[in-house]
Design goal:
four-stranded mixed β-sheet; binds calcium ion; disordered N terminus; about 35% strand; mainly beta; about 350 residues
């Protein structure tokens, strides 16, 4: 009976997912979401990074193996409407599931990225000092691509992590604010800009077609992130005057709330590790972080950093939770408040450098 039931579920799920792999699943790398997939016996393999699995039904059909952190799954079986696997680590250039310490040096347009996997520091020149840095995983291989947007002509330049080649695409116009994110949820960041002059978002979906959405007001700051945890970035703005957040959730409608004031720095991210970005800001005047938990809308605050620091949060220890992080320019010192415990202090960069994880924090 048990076998029959298994086959039945397998068949239904196979129909539901259409083209998805059934007998020999393999997913590797990437910023990915798995929904209703079946990875059955015969060598199913999912590798890479920092996963969250929710609502799974696991059966040791052919031996299930799961390892935390740098994750490996062998021959698992999931068949549930709510089954999801999510992995997204921002500013992870080597694809090990950990945000990398790295800087952009406007003078010379140099990028220095310290690979968390090896400690090596590849450096290169890409862009000019006035370009807006916009690193993200545009190619979907699980590694962030060094990239920038050029305000003068609205062109994007992306250095592919796969082979170091680059492509350039015009999208946007002078005066726009770059806001790339994975809006269509295919694991590839989409070129996107917010245009203050007409308060419109222009998104070039990596799956094809453009999304044009009027959302926000002229002086708003784009804070796109996946607040509802459905694997798609949500169009969202922070309104500095009243300290309001307006979030156009891809699955659940518009959410508006007041959190922060005009001089605060919006630093949304998944600090609690539930797969949903939390509304959060860093207050330059006292170096405090304020986070609203996506789980229950309660908030917490803690001091980390000091006035004059540059916030650069990411998941530096790769546990799926954002780590409060600041870069102190005058001493070129990084303070990483790791969610797994302890503060790591790193000397990296020089005064005047911009942390890559600060790319979308105005
Ligand atoms: Ca990394
Ligand atoms: Ca995409
Ligand atoms: Ca979403
Ligand atoms: Ca972390």
């Amino acid at each position: 009976m048990k076998t029959k039931k298994f086959l039945y579920v397998l068949a239904i799920t196979a129909i539901a997912i259409g083209h998805a792999v059934v007998a020999n699943a393999q997913s590797s790398g990437g910023n990915f979401v798995i929904k209703k997939s079946v990875i059955s016996s015969g060598g199913g393999l999912a590798t890479g990074g920092n996963f969250v699995l929710n609502g799974t039904t696991g059966q040791a059909i052919a031996g299930v193996e799961s390892n935390g952190g740098a994750f490996k799954i062998l021959s698992g079986f999931w068949a549930s409407g709510s089954s999801t696997a999510t992995r997204r680590t921002p500013f992870d250039f080597d694809g090990d599931g950990k945000t990398d310490v790295g800087i952009f040096r406007p003078n010379g347009a140099q990028w220095w990225i310290q690979r968390s996997s090896t400690g090596q520091v590849p450096a290169l020149q890409f862009g000019v000092s006035t370009d807006k840095i916009a690193p993200a995983d545009y190619t979907g291989d699980g590694k962030a691509d060094i990239a920038f947007w050029r305000p003068s002509d609205g062109t994007w330049y992306v250095l592919r992590s796969e082979d170091g080649s680059y492509f350039a695409v015009p999208f946007g116009a002078n005066g726009d604010i770059p806001a790339p994110a994975d809006f269509d949820g295919d694991g590839k960041a989409d070129l996107a800009v917010f245009r203050p002059s007409n308060t419109t978002w222009y998104i070039a979906k990596s799956t094809g077609g453009n999304l044009i959405v009027q959302f926000g007001a002229e002086n708003d700051i784009p804070v796109a992130a996946d607040y509802d945890g459905d694997g798609k970035a949500d169009i969202a703005i922070f309104r500095p005057g009243p300290g309001e957040w307006w979030i156009n959730r891809s699955s659940a409608g518009v959410l508006a709330l007041q959190f922060g004031s005009s001089t605060d720095k919006a630093v949304p991210g998944d600090y609690t590790g539930d797969g949903k970005a939390d509304v959060a800001f860093w207050r330059p005047s006292n170096g405090n972080w304020y986070v609203i938990r996506s789980e229950n809308a309660s908030f917490y605050a803690f001091p980390f950093g000091a006035s004059g620091d540059t916030p650069a949060p990411g998941d530096y220890d790769g546990d799926g939770k954002f780590d409060a992080t600041v870069f102190r320019g005058p001493t070129a010192t990084w303070y990483l408040g790791k969610s797994t415990g302890g503060t790591q202090i790193v000397q990296f960069g020089a005064n005047g450098d911009r942390p890559v994880a600060n790319a979308f924090i105005p």
